[in-house]
Amino acid sequence: MKILVAAIACSPTLGSEAYVGWSAVRALSRNHELWVIINNLAKEGAEAAMEKGEVPGNVRFIYHGRSQEEFEGTLVSPWHPNRLVARLGSWLNYLDWNNGLLELARKLHTQVSFDLIHHVTYATWRVGSPLAELGLPFVWGPISGGENMPIRFMSMLSWESCVFELLRKASDIASARSARVRQTAQRSFHVFAANKETMSRIIRIRGQNRGVSRLAQTFFDEEKIQRFSANPGSRDFLDSLRLFAGGNLEGRKGLRMAILALARVRDRGIRFDYVYGGLGPEREHLRDFIEKFRLADSIHLVDALRGQAYLDRLLSSHLYLLPSLRDGAPVTLMEAMLAGCVPIVLDAGGPGEIVTEDCGFKIPPISPSYVVAQIEQIIVGIHENRTKLGQLSEAASERIRATYSIDNYLSAIDEAYAAITAIPRQTG
User: Fold this and answer.
1) What is the dihedral of CA 288, 290, 292, 298, to 10 degrees?
2) Distance between CA atoms of residues 274 and 297, nearest Å
3) CATH number 3.40.50.2000 given to 2-219+405-421
4) CA 368, CA 153: separation in Å to the nearest integer?
5) Which segments of 206-353 are extended strands (E)?
6) pLDDT in tens, 257-301
């Protein structure tokens, strides 16, 4: 089929949303012809990939939106050093990117005659797509963002992160009432939701559960599964515990609770080394916290790891510790599990569904003190039973290989596509 794909974030060189967009395009191109509208900010990465022969011939990129030069000098930019301001800049860029998108799609449709439209990124329910108005079968997602941080955990955040979370909760109310969001949810022929929280929200807005199904936006192709899969000989399970986590270091990641738990672990005489790779607004706040508990020799906040250094860190780590208070389908968690890291997460959002009791640990978000105590108990138990650590490592890798493969992703997508194209087209 001929498919118009909307993917503002789509790049082989960037993580998070850009990774989701790029992976989706590569996967969909296996069976379909694609015309992909991406952000001008991603143009350089896309063209570099084309020059290297990494883009199939049936994929055509259309660049839309502001260039990097047009962002320079503005008060809000996606590259602002304050990551909360940068996040706001990304959202404003997204809203701006949607301007003129429908007109561009109409022009392309007169030239190509698309069979359907698929919105891939941003993978959020909060902003509706103007492309749902084109009158073609429209697929939305997988989308997420329905997760919310419990108010009782706000004490674990810096004041900046508290403000951000409160604003996010306010945006939930505004987005649920947005005419475009409601229109997108109701006009979509199919909506993929990444987790149960987002699915429940979409069903309420849509007014029915028909045409809504669950599918994670993060998945892995055969080459990546082979490269990241755990090598039994790469870890010494009798050595001191090595822990890792990564991503944009925001308050919602719950790292303060991890630090409190590790202070207790240290006081029990257990040796460990915990590395967090990633920048973010909480970094300086947490560095002061680490110093307060005299943990600077054991907990290291470093810049994001890339390439082979990142893979080597995953393959040598025993545990992935990140009690994130809200997350969709975090790429780093899933890559870590694929590489054999045993996850310790909260039973909330995407991590609560990705991690099972057979391959890791998930803690009910009852209260900060409860989470801290549970992390301590889990790590002590792992320290005392290294045989179980090895078993869980293999199970974590198998969980990702079996459940989040490209074949499973495409099977769900193509089933929806088949059902969609069997329905007579509507005009709107």
Assistant:
1) -140
2) 9
3) yes
4) 6
5) 212-214, 241-246, 272-277, 299-302, 319-321, 342-346
6) 999 999 999 999 999 999 999 988 888 889 999 999 999 999 999
Cross-strand bridge partners of residue 116: 3
Interatomic CA distance for residues 133 and 276, integer angstroms = 43
| Cα–Cα distance, 161 to 153 (Å, whole number) | 11
CA angle (330, 335, 340) in 5-degree steps: 130
Q: What tokens were used for 235?
A: 């870890």
Residues of the chain above pLDDT 70, percent: 92
Q: Which two tokens stand for residue 343?
A: 């996850």
Which uninterrupted H or E stretch holds 63?
strand 59-64
Question: What is the CATH architecture of 222-403?
Answer: 3-Layer(aba) Sandwich (3.40)
How many Cβ atoms from other residues are within 10 Å of residue 304's Cβ? 17
What is the arrangement of strands in the sheet containing 299-302, beginning at the earlier edge strand? 299-302, 272-277, 241-246, 319-321, 342-346, 361-363
Enumerate the H helices of 293-343 as residue ranges: 307-316, 331-338
Which uninterrupted H or E stretch holds 48? helix 43-51
CA separation for the pair 302, 171 (Å, rounded): 32
